[in-house]
Amino acid sequence: MPIAAALASLLVLLSVALTAKPARACSCAFEFETRALLPRPNQIDVPTNTRVTVLRPPERSFAVNLIAPDGTSIPLTRTNRFRLGPDLVEVAAPPSDLAPNTTYGVDVVGNGEPDFMFTTGAAPDDSPPPEPKLGLAEYTEEGGGLFGGMSSCGESKIWTLPVRFDPLDGTVLLLTEVDGSISSPTAPGDNALAEFRSVAEGRREASVTVGQFACNAGLAAKEGARIRVALLDMSGQLSGWSGARTLDDGCNGGGDGATAASLGLSLLALAAVRRRRPQPPQQAS
């Protein structure tokens, strides 16, 4: 096969692939045990006024305790709660500050045995985390694909929003909220979260992703949805919520990115064939 014809065939196949709908397989039917989010396992220099933040399915009762160095259990009292779909993100506090420079265990399921350990630092942390700044939403293609960043403008729509903040002096959770409780107070008690993620000490930026691609109904977001974020630290302190951003339809104005790319590849393929098409022999005069 001539090189030009082979190139044309490849370009046509790529154009077809770009317009094809991606196959999806998604199941939300899974079970998990209560797990700790903050502090992290084996974390050191944890503030002495730390809280324990856990993710708990609704069918599991709250049974989280701390284990002191002498093996006694320290009960925790819930001080804040967020909803993540049907599940709960809960913040719980011991009766008083912990001893400095001491190793404690976290009993997540209430069986009296530590699931992991952490070590406190020398002092409490009384400064809330910095208020994050939420950037404009960037409309992207699910999964990125071969030409990542182009929009399919089909059933699966994804927005990525950059988040920036002052350098962190400890590990935090980045909480993302979609619509739900946008008008609620600065420190809500039962907000509906879209997602959370851990952000390490020293970081200055992160990102959140929402769209019509997730099993979890809390993550689902459509054009016109409003997004905001906040930071939750190990001491249970919540930053102020960022200003809300509205998701725009990425297909408006610029058209369908994948279709445009497909059309461009098709035209390029046709041009390649045309350039290499043999000319009919000229008759002698």
Characterise this structure.
The protein is 13% helix and 29% strand. Helix 1 packs antiparallel against helix 2 (257-276). It starts with a helix and ends in a 9-residue tail after the last helix. The chain is globular, with a radius of gyration of 26 Å. A hairpin with a 5-residue loop joins strand 3 (65-67) and strand 4. It is built from 2 helices and 17 strands. It has 285 residues and is α+β, with helices and mostly antiparallel strands.
Question: Secondary structure elements and their pairing?
Answer:
Blueprint: H1 3-19, E1 35-38, E2 52-56, E3 65-67, E4 73-75, E5 77-84, E6 87-93, E7 103-107, E8 116-119, E9 133-134, E10 138-140, E11 158-164, E12 172-178, E13 190-193, E14 195-199, E15 205-211, E16 226-233, E17 245-246, H2 257-276
Parallel strand pairs: 5-13
Antiparallel strand pairs: 1-2, 2-6, 3-4, 3-7, 5-6, 7-8, 9-11, 10-11, 11-15, 12-14, 12-16, 16-17
Helix pairs in contact: 1-2
